[in-house]
TrEMBL record:
Single GO cellular component term: plasma membrane
Organism, as annotated: Advenella kashmirensis
Keyword Transmembrane: yes
Residue ranges of the TM segments: 66-86, 162-182, 247-267, 279-300, 307-329, 349-374, 386-410, 416-433
Localisation: Cell membrane
InterPro entries documented for this protein: MFS, MFS_trans_sf
Bilayer topology annotation: Multi-pass membrane protein
Name of the molecule in the record: MFS transporter
Length: 448
């Protein structure tokens, strides 16, 4: 195996970034598009299958209203069971080669999914959802463990910002494309099948250009016990209190965002009196806001400022703008559901969309520095396993968000949920950060 050239090493990061934008560098661009293709494919496929089982294909054992819950649940389950061993594999094997193995498997999964989409084989479709969940679980640790091996200091912040931005835009475009293609009369699912395979092949081609990195722990013995491995990963992450607190704060951000994503359809229909296009607009504004905040964080980091100071700023914005949305939410008492062009004609709705954008931008400012802190504080020999511990905690918080959101929708109103979320955000972040004064001190010190 050949090592990275001097141009592609982390030590040369600052000089290289001055000469070449990060998106044009071989150490980043192929990796970036490999990651983005996977995120887009996950969401395009999942949403297209959800549309199929909600509107177009009926099976007695799966009520249409439960299709989204079942599909998302099957996708998340592997994160709970397989994240631990995925982290071990990422630390054991060379990361660029490991990415290529994963993306090759994605082509096979999408080939099987294409057959199931065209012939509407529900059992096979659900199996492919589960397999794509496994694919994303295995890819998750290597995705973030690769960056600190090739970037350092402010360039590590910038690279994380671009990845976060690209991920949310890919999620948005994947969902929109899945819904649009699935709605085409006649051959809609044929188009979904073809594009899913095409994206998988594109991801595999991009992964072939990712430069090799040193193996972190080549002698590591894999532990296939999902429970024991999970406990060991979390225990190791807990050894560094700052890393563990960052994991908790990141997991909370996913909880926070998942609640909003879960309530957008009800929020659009029952409160804003908008149709499904309005719900899609809310999703789009939210995703673009997170992406903008992530890139803004990277830009601030390149100016030499300590981006860890943005964590409390972002948390404050998440709370302030959640509470603002509570007061901006209004029932229009329209006689019909407003189409998108009718909705955007009302000036009050532009103010609400601005509040939603600022809220999600704050989430982007909040999350990127936490990923950077984890990457900088974790030894490279264990980086993938700590990221796996983060993924496990994220999955637990996501499951909790689905359960709690369902209960809140049943016993409360959407505006009150937004208000509750803003207040809960302030309390959670305050308790986690103030429980350890050294964690606050860490954020005041210059970045490495």
């Amino acid at each position: 195996m050949t090592n990275l050239s001097p141009h592609d090493t982390a030590k040369d990061g600052a000089a290289s970034d001055d000469a070449t934008h990060i998106m044009l560098q071989r150490r980043f661009a192929p990796y970036f598009w490999t990651q983005i293709s996977g995120a887009a494919n996950d969401n395009l496929f999942k949403f297209a299958v959800t549309i199929m089982l909600t509107y177009h294909v009926s099976v007695s054992w799966l009520p249409p209203e439960m299709a989204g819950v079942v599909i998302n649940g099957m996708f998340i389950i592997p994160f709970l069971l397989l994240s631990a061993v995925s982290g071990q594999m990422s630390d054991k094997f060379e990361k660029a080669r490991f990415m290529r193995w994963i993306k090759t498997a994605e082509i096979g999964i999408m080939g099987l999914a294409a057959f199931a989409l065209i012939y509407q084989q529900v059992y096979i479709l659900l199996l492919c959802v589960l397999l794509m969940g496994i694919h994303s679980t295995v890819f998750g640790p290597v995705k973030f463990a690769y960056l600190p091996q090739v970037f350092h200091g402010t360039t590590l912040v910038s690279s994380n910002g671009w990845v976060e931005m690209g991920t949310f835009v890919a999620i948005l475009l994947g969902n929109m494309a899945g819904g649009f293609l699935a709605g085409i009369e006649g051959f809609g699912y044929h188009y979904v099948a073809a594009i899913c395979v095409l994206i998988a092949v594109t991801g595999r081609l991009c992964s072939g250009l990712v430069p090799p990195t040193p193996m972190s722990s080549p002698d590591l013995k894999l532990d296939w016990n999902p429970i024991g491995g999970t406990i060991e990963n979390i225990k190791y992450a807990f050894h560094d209190r700052h890393v563990f607190k960052s994991i908790l704060l990141i997991s909370w951000m996913w909880f926070f965002g998942a609640v909003y994503l879960n309530i957008f359809p009800v929020f659009a229909k029952e409160i804003l009196r908008g149709d499904e296009q309005v719900a899609t607009l809310l999703l789009g504004v939210f995703s673009i806001g997170v992406g903008f905040g992530s890139v803004l964080c990277g830009w601030i980091g390149k100016k030499g400022l300590n981006v860890l100071k943005l964590v409390p700023v972002g948390a404050a914005g998440m709370t302030v703008f959640s509470i603002a949305l509570y007061f901006l939410a209004h029932d229009l008492n329209a006689t019909h559901l407003l189409a998108l062009h009718e909705f955007v004609r009302l000036p009050a709705n532009w103010l609400l969309l601005a509040g939603l954008f600022l809220l999600s931008m704050s989430a982007g400012l909040y999350s990127v520095p936490l990923y950077v802190l984890i990457q900088q504080k974790t030894p490279k020999t264990h980086s993938s396993r700590v990221i796996a511990a983060n993924n496990i905690m994220n999955a637990i918080f996501l499951v909790a968000s689905s359960v709690i959101t369902g209960l809140l929708i049943a016993f409360s109103t959407v505006p009150l949920i937004v208000l509750f979320l803003g207040i809960a955000n302030a309390i959670f972040v305050f308790v986690v950060m103030r429980s350890d004064h050294s964690y606050i001190t860490e954020m005041r010190e210059p970045m490495e």
